Structure formats: structure tokens, C-alpha cells
Amino acid sequence: MGLNLHCHLEGCVRIATAADIAREHGIAEPAGGWEAALRMRTPADLTVFLAHVAAAYPVMGFADALRRIARESVEDGAAAGEDFLEIRFGPATHRRPDLPVEAVIGAVRDGLADGSRATGLPTGLVVCLLRHSDRETNLAVARAAAALAGDGVTGLDVAGDELRWPSNEAYVEPYRIAAAAGLGLTAHAAEASGAGAAREAAEWLGATRIGHGTHVADDPTILAWAVDHGLTFEVCATSNIYTGAAPSLREHPVHAFLAAGASVVLGNDNPITIDRTLADEERDLVGQGGLASDDLGAIHRGSIEVAFMDESVRARLRERLAAST
After folding, report:
1. What's the rounded Cα separation, in Å, for the pair 284 and 237?
2. Are 58 and 29 in contact, with CB atoms under 8 Å apart?
3. What CATH number does residue 319 fall under?
4. DSSP class of residue 192?
5. Which of 27, 49, 239, 268 is most buried, most CB within 10 Å of its CB?
6. pTM for this one?
7. CA–CA dist 3, 85 (Å, integer)
8. Is 201 strand, coil or helix?
């Protein structure tokens, strides 16, 4: 059973697809080629990591390209044996004068639907605000996401460089819009900032899930508060090593989260960037990280309950998990 609950579309662009789209639209190849631009080979920090992710942006400013990339992300998830895939992305990055935010989201929504029809893999779409965007842009993104609630869009997130834009206060109103539309709420927090950022995201934004949240493990008081309030941590272990948020799989904060009784789900974050499937993450968390098989089973069960998905999909996944145990 594999539920991928933290996966960015921008980190799902196949190297060959980037090259194809670039040729079609007359986009220059990056110095060193697309593989060097899109793949990160050694750990560094969040800013360097995001620069590799951003290398895909030039080929994502077209509706047909976005639809293709979204469809291929589902195909890749299905090929890797996933049972559910939650894709997230920041539409403001990919808008153009002839491609407004609404059309950007719609193209990705349609691509995910194409992939689901072809593979049978159910998906959800989480729309991301961006920390570097201005207030009006983030409000427009939240409104566009809310308009598609129940029509492919399942959640709202905020992502970007926490080192440069650490405050969560600017996103209160966009999150209110999303909550009123019934969208699930998650937030990247406490990955580069301190543990308190996760509590801010929960209290100010209403987030029930925290993307990464690695530094919460540094503060037992905040971690206990998160457990008491039912927060779920979206763990992307290898990605955290590449961003410098964790030293190794064995020393990863996931162990502190589980020991404290926190809810944990898994994702592969940016699979092309780090060349990892969800199955790779699970295998190595157990084999190299020392995660107990019982913990992995609990993660699978909990993932079904906190995923942003239609209740009919949730019921099917519960049945599938029960049949497999």
C-alpha cells in the first residue's frame, strides 16, 4: 500500500519531456543539459534544491505542456506501484499573459484526470500559494483553487523558500477562502524555519498537515502540542537530506515524530530532482533508517484517513488495505 501525499509537479518533469517541450517552443537548453539542470546529485540546502526544481519552470508555461506533465506524473506513480497520488504545484509561477492562473490549474487538473483514466490511479490536486508571491497573487490563486473545489482540486498549501520568507501571517486570508470552500489545508513549515512555524501554520492558517516540519523534532514542547492537536507530518526523507534539513535516514526526525505518537505520512517530494520513487523511500526508511514494519503499517493506515480525497476513494483504499493485511 503506497499513498504519496507530498509530491510537487514541478519536480515530476521527465528529462526527455523537458527536452521535447523546449524544442517545440524554442526554449534554450540549460548549460550542461536538462539532466544536470533538473537532477540534484549531492545534498546542499533548500535554496540550492529549489533552484533545481525551478529549472523546469521554462517548459511549464503552456497549457498543453502542463497537461502532459501532469498526466505523466500519474503514469510514473502508477508504474511505481502507488495506490494514491496527491500532486501539488504553484500555478502562479506558470501563468503567462495568455495563460491565467485559472487556466493553469485547469490544465493540470485535466492532465491528472487523463492519467487517472489511463492507469486507474486515483489522484488529488493541492494548489500552492508561494512565499515570494505578493498578496494579490496569492489571493487570486486561493480563489481559483476554491472555484474548483470538488472538481479536481482537493487542497491548499503554501510553499517556497522559508529561509527568505519565513512568516505565515500573509497567508491567513487565502487559507480562509480555501477553508470556506471545503479544501484540505496543509502548509510547508518548520523545514528551514524553527519549530514554531508549524504551530503558526496550524493556529493561523488552519493547516491540519505540515509539509516536512523537520525542525519540530528539535522542540519537544511544540512536538507535544502537535501530537495533542492531531497534526500530521508529511515526511519526504531523502528530500530532507538533500535540503540539509536532516543528516541521514537513521537520524531523520520521522523517528522522533513516531516516538512521540505523531501522525506521519510519506511522499517523495520532487521525484525527478532526487531520482526517488515512494517505494524507494519506504524501502530505505526501513532498511537504512531502521523504521519498524509496524510503523510503516500505521503510516499506511493513517495516510488513508488524512489524505485529501473523495470519500468513495477513501472507502476503496480502506478495503484494499484490509485485503492486503
Report:
1. 9
2. no
3. 3.20.20.140
4. S
5. 268
6. 0.97
7. 6
8. helix
Q: What is the largest CA-CA distance in the chain?
A: 53
In total, how many domains does the chain have?
1
Digit-coded pLDDT (tens) for 41-53: 999 988 899 899 9
Q: Which domain holds residue 203?
A: 3-324
8 Å CB contact between 3 and 82: yes
Closest among 221, 313, 319, 302 to 265, alpha carbons compared: 302
Let me know if 293 is exposed, middle or buried by CB neighbors in 10 A (0-12, 13-18, 19+): exposed
The three grid cell numbers given for residue 32, joined into one nine-digit string: 550542461
Per-residue pLDDT tens digits for 96-145: 999 999 999 999 999 999 999 999 999 999 999 999 999 999 999 999 99
∠ CA 136-112-231, rounded to 5°: 65
In whole angstroms, give the CA distance from residue 41 to residue 49. Answer: 10
Is residue 324 within 8 Å of residue 296, measured between CB atoms? no
CA distances from 193 to 42, 160, 166 (A): 22, 12, 6
Angle at the Cα of 318 from the Cα atoms of 314 and 321, rounded to 5 degrees: 135
Q: Which residue has the cell 482537493?
A: 154
What cell numbers appear for 69 in the block? 506533465
Rounded Cα gap, residues 277 and 2, in angstroms: 10
> Which residue from 197, 204, 127 is spatially nearest to 162, judged by alpha carbons?
197
The predicted-structure confidence for 11-58, as pLDDT tens digits, reads as follows: 999 999 999 999 999 999 999 999 999 999 999 988 899 899 999 999
Using the 8-state DSSP alphabet, how is residue 166 labeled? Answer: -
pLDDT digits (tens, 9 = 90+) for 254-309: 999 999 999 999 999 999 999 999 999 999 999 999 999 999 999 999 999 999 99
Return the SS3 of 264: strand
- Mode of pairing for the β-strands spanning 3-8 and 263-266: unpaired
DSSP state of 288: T
